[in-house]
TrEMBL record:
Keywords, ordered alphabetically: Carbohydrate metabolism, Kinase, Transferase, Xylose metabolism
Source organism of the structure: Microbacterium mangrovi
Sequence ranges assigned to domain Carbohydrate kinase FGGY N-terminal in this UniProt record: 14-203
Alphabetical list of InterPro entries matching this protein: ATPase_NBD (IPR043129), FGGY_C (IPR018485), FGGY_Carb_Kinase (IPR050406), FGGY_N (IPR018484)
GO BP term, example: D-xylose metabolic process
Any one GO molecular-function label of the UniProt entry: kinase activity
Lineage of producing organism: Bacteria, Bacillati, Actinomycetota, Actinomycetes, Micrococcales
Domain Carbohydrate kinase FGGY C-terminal: 274-469
The keyword Signal belongs to this UniProt entry's keyword annotation: no
The family this protein is said to belong to: Belongs to the FGGY kinase family.
Keyword Kinase in record: yes
Pfam families the record matches: FGGY_C (PF02782), FGGY_N (PF00370)
Superkingdom of origin organism: Bacteria
Listed name of the protein: ATPase
Amino acid sequence: MSAPAEAIAAGRAVLGIELGSTRIKACLIGDDPGDILAVGAHDWENRLVDGLWTYALDDVWTGIQQAYARLAADVRTRYGVPLTSVRAAGISGMMHGYLAFDDADELLVPFRTWRNTNTGAAAAELSDLFGVNIPLRWSIAHLHQAVRDAEPHVPRIASLTTLAGYVHRSLTGRRVIGVGDASGMFPIDSATGDYAPGLVERYDDVAAGRVPALRTLLPEPLRAGSPAGALTEPGALLLDPTGALRAGVPFCPPEGDAGTGMVATNAVAPRTGNVSAGTSIFAMVVLEHPLGAVHDELDLVTTPAGDPVAMVHCNNGASELAAWAGLFGRFAAASGTPLDPDAVFDVLLREALQGEPDAGGLLAYNHLAGEPIAGLAEGRPLLVRRPDAAFTLANLMRAQLSGAFATLALGMQVLADEGVRLDRLFAHGGMFRTAGVAQQLLAAALDAPVAVGETASEGGAWGIAVLADYLAHTDLDLGAYLDARVFADASPTVVGPDPVDVAGFAAYLERYRRGLAVESAAVSAL
């Protein structure tokens, strides 16, 4: 029996599951947390229902079961052993949003995801009340908007949580949450790792008589390494309806995708940061000192260990790029030369490197949803060009990639103006599977070296598996654990900013800023 097969058979492997915006992924790691033994995935999509972005909870469980079943099948194919137990496990998911339950744990209204931008009035009121920026997607903004609107379900709310918190509670019975995920629900006091008490009291004063006391609604925050319950018998059947998986598996605190992205890129220490690119795109920068002012472009969240982080979050990431790839994939199939989706992406991304540094005068807005950093309550994907622009495939794809990074660059400039400096910036997400392309253009957009590791495409599913492994290594702080046990032998690929690309992106971004008036007009007119 091979070493991986023996580890799996003995129940020493560690399981991580992440519910991303377009894919639910399961990842199994071995005795060495850098050793990915097996993976399984299930594609899914959010839906726009009655003007709000949502996922059905039935789809949550269908997707988790499919991803786990495919991982278990991968295990049997590769190693010839069944997957019946693991040493530890963890759940990660999209942060923020609104999952409100009554005292019977019944969902009161459909899940409202981070992508919704209907909470502007509530977010503005809370930002003034707290003296910190409360973004539209935060759970407290969703709650307060429902309170302001006097939605009928509000008096019946008994608990609030995130997607990861909901899945974790269903599997373990524990109403807890990782502190990083919690920091996207309500502001966290990094010194205590708990919700900021003075702000909780301010909110209770404002919402008195309209909603139960906030502290009774929110899940308990836990730092990385804290025991967070164990898989119950009903939970085991939820995860694996075949009954092969045994109960009793210890779970780490459920975390948000931002926190697991930081772990997956070893970006949990001051002066480190990471960029995660998916349906949304965001940067996380661990702070050395407090910021000098409140900025609408920045969230203040935490690492999974509770340390302060500035987050630049853009609602729109790679979805529009994927739509163009789907279009060209269909063209390839219709022409009689079908390509699988990964091959289509590879061809198109490599073509982007042949484009002009400023995309030849083309502009691409990837705004499927509203984009607060750009001042947009709604989105309208646009491709805009002057009649004399060089309309080539290379420039089109260069514009699409540059457009995916443009709003992020606007937010990162605010951090730079605050004097925040980075020693290293790591990137992860599916678009970085094509070696060097998105990485090169991101380095140009942020004018900083960008590193990508071998686990970049596994992202948060691997990150939450690593956090589950950390349950057995809490004699070290999280940063020391990652340095010593996970990344000691890592050799990421680093791409520095090319001056020609930097100048080209700067020209693109200046046109992009001016062109936001066109995007705004499209939202009004269409």
